[in-house]
Write a structure and sequence with these properties.
The protein is an alpha/beta fold and 255 residues long. The protein contains six helices and eleven strands.
Length: 255
């Protein structure tokens, strides 16, 4: 164990930068000049009360954990097991350092969201924050998260662009009906071919209606919507015949 002082924390944090999570590690901020300010703490305050304050006996998975803000918050609420996964080694190094400084027993693994089935376990609370718009195949990812790792709650957030309205969409339309597609509140997933905000991993920007529709389509019931980008959802078992995650052919007879 390192005897962390503010000077050693500041020095180590600088060596691991740049940071997207502006963490407060014993009085040292990891990204004091963050363009979003006190982020993600400012986001967290908008929905913190929508998640149980006592997570004793429960497990948490944080997909796309970044610097570990939410993994640490869940451990502070008493969760027995907290696992953060990310595909970026730099973020994982930041998260491990932050958890060590804070003295929190959190596990981190390098893993893609598309591989969550390899975990072989389900979690009581799953965080899926700041991930969907970075994915080439976002609905597949949601299907896999529903099928393999969500036991109860899903905490979802995506960058959103377009209208905040949510149109009343009918279950079906005649072939010649087209006007509903132009309704600003109709679910829309905007595709970003090149870059957005100087980030070539920003592939999609759903409007609010699209975020909600994709969650329902993946098998989640939305139980609260405490902030414009945050949806608290509950896992709903799929009915027989409903589409779930689509897998490539594994070969063999008849493939």
């Amino acid at each position: 164990m390192t005897a962390w002082t503010q000077d050693t924390i500041r020095e180590r944090a600088a060596s691991l930068g740049p940071w997207f999570h502006n963490l407060n590690l014993r009085g040292v901020h990891t990204a004091p000049d963050h363009f979003l300010g006190d982020f993600p703490a400012v986001k967290w305050r908008s929905f913190a009360d929508d998640i149980p304050h006592d997570l004793t006996g429960r497990s948490v998975l944080d997909i796309g954990c970044n610097g570990g803000f939410y993994t640490m918050e869940m451990k502070r609420r008493g969760a027995d097991r907290v696992l953060g996964i990310d595909f970026d080694d730099d973020y994982l190094a930041q998260a491990r350092f932050a958890a060590e400084v804070e003295g929190l027993d959190v596990e981190f693994r390098r893993m893609s969201v598309y591989d969550v089935g390899a975990l072989g376990e389900k979690f009581d609370v799953v965080f899926f924050i700041g991930v969907l718009y970075h994915l080439r195949h976002p609905l597949l990812a949601l299907d896999l998260v529903h099928e393999h790792v969500t036991r109860d709650l899903l905490v979802f957030q995506s960058m959103q662009r377009g209208a905040n309205a949510m149109a009343a969409v009918k279950p079906d339309y005649a072939f010649w009906e087209q006007d509903h597609f132009d309704d600003p509140g109709y679910p829309k997933l905007h595709f970003i071919e090149h870059e957005y905000a100087h980030d070539n991993t920003n592939w999609w920007a759903p409007n609010r209606a699209c975020s909600a529709a994709m969650l329902r389509s993946a098998g989640y019931e939305i139980v609260s919507h405490p902030e414009e980008e945050i949806f608290i959802c509950r896992h709903v078992p799929r009915q027989a015949g409903e589409y779930g995650a689509v897998y490539p052919s594994q070969g063999g007879a008849g493939a």
